[in-house]
Amino acid sequence: MKKVFLLACGIIALAACSPKEETQTPVPQPQIDADISETVYSFDLNTLTSGCNENSEIVCAINTSIKCTINPQFVDCAEAKDAMPKFVFMNDDNLQRPTSQSYKITKIKPLADGNVEVYTQSTCNGNWFGLCNGNIIYIMNNAKGKWIVKEIYAIES
Length: 157
Fold this sequence. Notes:
Elements: H1 2-17, E1 40-44, H2 57-70, H3 77-80, E2 100-110, E3 116-124, E4 134-143, E5 146-155
Antiparallel strand pairs: 1-2, 2-3, 3-4, 4-5
């Protein structure tokens, strides 16, 4: 009985160490223009415009996120409401929502799970959870063939 148990343990150990075949779906790569890192994108509550004229879905998704940060009732936010983080649409007078914000992309990092991290240097005239001044990272997800902002967080310099 002892030999059978040891044999079974050996077979299990070998099976655990054998290489496994995995089928990986290709990670979608964002389409980025070469001059994106040189561009500063700016938004103000009084001059928000609907739509996006940029050549990058990544930039358009971040722009929509910022427009909704500034004004959650903005016309472009209704369609994006289900895709973006819920805290973007919170209503509370103490949030110190910015009325103007600008950002510049500093780095784009594809992740193994198909998401993309977009590192930005951002400035704003509010506080808003500390997510509009400094080094802000947008986690992007390609949902249904369209890039969306999945999460937003800040890191120290």
